[in-house]
Design brief:
The protein has 232 residues and is mainly α. The protein has one domain. 79% of the residues lie in helices and 0% in strands. Helix 4 packs antiparallel against helix 9 and helix 8 runs parallel beside helix 11. The termini are far apart.
Amino acid sequence: MRCCGRVLDQTFLEEFVRQLEIYAVKTGYVGVFALSFFGSVIPFLPLPYLFLVVILSDTLDPLLLGLLAGLGGALGKISSYALGRFGYKLMGETRRRKMDALRRLIDRFGALGVFIFALTPLPDDILYIPIGITGYSFTKFMIASMAGKIVLSVGVAYLGRAYLSLFRAFEIGNGLSTAISIGVLAVITVLLLRIDWELFTAHWERDGLRGVLTNLQEILVLKRSKNSSAQG
C-alpha cells in the first residue's frame, strides 16, 4: 500500500507539473510569472520554471520573459526568508541577541551571498532561511535575490535551447539533492543557534581568525567562560 501511495504521489506531482507547464505555454508571460512564483514558494521543492523560459524564448521577447521569470522567482523566495524570520521571533531574548551579533557580522557580505545563490543552481533555501533567522534586512535580501534571479532568467532566455541540456544536468538526482539540502540546512541551523555570536564577534574584532579558533570551545558553548563560572 505504501509503495502504491508513493507511486500515486509521484504520478500526481508529475501530472501537476505537466499541467502547470501547459498553462504557462498557453498564457505566455503571465503563465511564466505565475509558474516561477509558485515554483519557488515551497522551500526545497522547486519546479523547473527555467525549462519553460528556454522553450518560450523562441517566441517571446527574451528580456521581458527573463525579467518576469526572475521577478516571480524572487517573490516566491520570500517564503524561505519569512520562515527564518518566524523562527527568529520565537527565540528568547538571549538567543536573539546572539543572532543580532551574527547579523552585524554578515551585514558586509550577506547581500553578495544571496545574489550568488540566486544566480546559480545552488539550493538557495540553505542560505535564505538562516539569513531570515538572523534578522537580516528584508530590503537588502529582496534586492540581492531579485537581481540574481533576473540576471539568471534573462541569461537563460537569451541562451535559449543551448541552456536546456545544462539545466537538465542540474535536475539529475533531484530527490537526493533535496535530502542533502535539508540535512545541510539542519546542520547550519544548529550551528547558528549553538554559537555564541557575541563572543564570536568580540574575538573576531579583537584578534581576527586566530582569536576565534583559540576560543572556539567557548564560542560553541562547549565550555563555560571564567566570567560565566564566576557569576554562577
